[in-house]
Amino acid sequence: MSALAPASTVPAAAVHLAARDVEVGYPGRPVLRGVTFRAGPGSRIGLVGENGTGKTTLLRVLAGELAPTSGEVRVVGSLATVAQELEVSGGATVGDLVEEALAAARAAAAELAAAHAAMDAVAPDARPEVHDAAAGRLARALAMAERLAVWDADRRADEALTRFGAPRDTGRRLAELSVGERYRVRLACRIAQRPDVLLLDEPTNHLDQDGIEHLTEELRRWPGVVVIVTHDRQLLDDVMTAILDLDPSMDGRPTLYGESSYATYRFQRTQALRRWRARYAAERKRAATLAERLDDAYEGLSDAWRPPKGSQGHRRATRARIHVKAADRLVQRLEATAVEVPVPPLELAFPDLPALPPATDVAAGTRPLLEVRGVRVPGRLDLPGVRVDLPPCGRLLVTGPNGAGKSTLLAVLAGTVLSVRGVRHVAPGVRLGLLGQDDDADDDASGTSHAASPGRVPRASGAAPGTTGFDAYAAHALALLQAGALDPERLVPVASLGLLTEEDLDRPLAELSVGQRRRFALAKALLAAPHVLLLDEPTNHLSVALVDELTEALTATSAAVVVATHDRALRRDLDGWPELAL
After folding, report:
1. What tens digit of pLDDT does each residue of 43-62 get?
2. What DSSP string describes 457-511?
3. Helix, strand or coil, per DSSP, at residue 346
4. 25-28 — which CB contacts under 8 Å span 24+ positions?
5. Which pTM value belongs to this model?
6. Quick count: other Cβ atoms within 10 Å of Cβ 496?
7. Beta-carbon neighbour count of residue 508 at 10 Å?
8. Distance between CA atoms of 340 and 248, rounded to whole angstroms?
9. Where are the extended beta strands (E) located within 196-336?
10. DSSP characters over 78-128
C-alpha cells in the first residue's frame, strides 16, 4: 500500500519515505524480499546490488507504479521519479516536460498571490477569526512558495538543462532526441521541480563530467529524500547517507549499511561474502558426509551384518530394526545441525585473453594491432593529424564531454562506422571485441549479426521474440565464424564468465533487466577472445560489485584495451593509462 500526500498539505519536517517488509515477485520467481527502511529529510539512500536483484523494481514500488506482493510503502510529501527510459508519446516537446515539472511551483505562486489578495481584503475591523484565517492561509502559502523556490523556478529549469547538456529549445520534440538527451531533459526538469521525494535510476549514465558535478551539488543540498539506483562509486562516496544493498545476504534479506564511505561498504560486503561462501562450502561438505554415512549405514544393513549361525530367526529382524533406527537417528542429528545456505552470488571469471595473433609482423614488433590516423566522420568526429595506435597489451583512456565523439571514435576503431578521411589498419589475425554504449538495448541484445569481414566487429540486429541468451550467443558466434572473426578453439562460453546464471540465459532476452542485458552485451564482446577490447562506458547499468571486478580484470588482461568513460572512479582507477581527451 502506498500513501501519498499533496505537497501543499505537508510540513517539510513531516516528509518521509518508508518501506516495511516489502516483497515483490512473479509466479515461481521472487524478485524482492524483506525490504525495510525509513528515510526522512536530508536522507540520501543509494540502492546497489547485482543486475536483476530488483533495484528498478523497488523504485517502481516506491513510486506507486507497482504494487508489492506483500508489505507496505508509505510516502509523505510530493514524489517524482526519473526512470532509465522515457516513453515518448505524440508530439510532446521539451517545453511540455518543463511546464509539467513547474506546475506545482506555478500553482504555489498563484496561491501566494491569492493569499496576499485575501489578506489585503480583510477589513481592519474584521472579526479576529477572519483575520487569523487569512493570516494562516498566507503563512502556509508563503512556506510552500519558499519550499519550491517559486521565484527562481524558470531560471532553475534553464540552468539545469544547460548544466546537464540537455536541449534548451522548448519547441524540440522529444521523439527527435536521443535516449541520452531525453534522459537529461527529464532529469533537469525533476531537479527544477524540487519534489519532496526524488527517485533516480542511474542518473549519471548520460551525463558528462560537468553534468555529474552539478547533479552532485544539487543532491548534497536536497532538503527532502533522495533514493538513487547507481553504479557510480564516486557518487556513492560524495552524496549518500546510507547504502541499501539488495543483493541477497545469507539470510536472503537486503542489508542496510549506515552512513559510511563506499570503501567501508565494500569491505563489509566482501567480508560478509567470504563468510557466506565458507559457510556454503561447509554445508555442502556436511551434506556430502551425510549422504556417504547413510550409504554406508544402509549398505551395512543389507550386506555386512549377518546373525550368528543357529540364532533365532526373530533376532535377525530385531537387529535389523535397531540398525535402521541408529541410521535414522544419525540422519536426524546431522539434519538438525544443518543450515539452509543459499548459493552465493556469481563472481566475474574474466577470460584469459591473448595478447598476439598467430605469428605475424606484429609479433616482431613492427606494426601495432590496430591503428587509425586523421579520421573524420561528418558531424560527429574530426581528428586531423591525430594518430591512435594500439600495440600488443596497449591501453588507452578516451575522455571528453558529451558530443565530443568518444563513441564515434570507438566505432571507427571497431570498423562499424566508416571514416570519410584518414587511415584505419588492423593487423592480420587480430580479433576485436566491442561493447557499445547502448548495446544493452533490446534490439542489440539479440546477438544476431550482419555479415562482416575480419578486422571489423559485426553489427547486431534485432532478434525474434522469445530468443534466449543461449540462442543469441550461438547466433553471434556463428556470425563471427562466417566473418572469419572467430577462432573456434578460442571461443569463450557465455556460462563460464559468471555474468549471468544458466537460468537467466535460458530466459528470453526481452525479460532480462537492463543491467542483465548489459552483462550479456559484455559477454558478446568477449566471445571471440579478442586481442583488442573496445569498451564504451563499460560501467553503465552494471552493479558496483561487478564494476570493481571488471576494473581489476581490465588492468590485468593481456589484451589491448580502449575505454571511453565519464565514470570518475573508473578514470581514477585507470590513472596512468595514456589518455586521449576529445
Report:
1. 999 998 877 778 889 999 99
2. PPPB----TT-BHHHHHHHHHHHHHHTT---GGG---GGGSSSS-HHHHTSBGGG
3. coil
4. 25/69
5. 0.70
6. 11
7. 15
8. 14
9. 197-201, 225-229, 242-245, 255-257
10. -EEEE-SS----TT-BHHHHHHHHTHHHHHHHHHHHHHHHHHHHS-TT--H
